Amino acid sequence: MVTDGRGDAIDRAFGELMRAGVVALRNAGVTQSDGWDEAEQRAETLSDELEDEELAYGDGESDEDPVRGAVFYHAQDLARARRGEGLYLTYGAFKRSGRSRADHDAASVEIGVLAREALARHGVDVEWNGSVDERLFLPPAAWAAATRRGVAGAGPGAQRRQASAPK
């Protein structure tokens, strides 16, 4: 998993998504296009890992790729979050040959739902209207809370703020 060393709540949610066949990356490239390139590369190795696990623990009968999609944020998203603007997450299903646009959109919404639910289970508030046309959004307060629970370095002056915060 690509990380920037922040927020264990997001790390836990992203780990859960990876185990469920959703590539979940932090700080993946600079743009959405970069992020999708990194997600597709990671999908290849994750697919092998999940298939090996299925053979070890499951029936191994499925011909379907166990990796369904991705969720990530990239460097531009992280820069906005560090400025106090909240964090946007890109999500979606991987393209499959023979799948209609409507089916692809529905599969992408399923990935968005999985990501929102995983983050919520780990105490991270997410705003999203359920539309494939809107990215998931961690409001500034949710982003700040998730990163405060992680390690120092949640942005400029974070160690000073943590040291001077009331106990």
UniProtKB/TrEMBL annotation:
Entries under InterPro entries matching the protein: DUF6891 (IPR054186)
Region of interest (Disordered), residue spans: 31-66, 148-167
Residue span, DUF6891 domain: 8-144
Coiled-coil positions: none
UniProt biased composition (Acidic residues): 46-64
Name this protein carries in UniProt: DUF6891 domain-containing protein
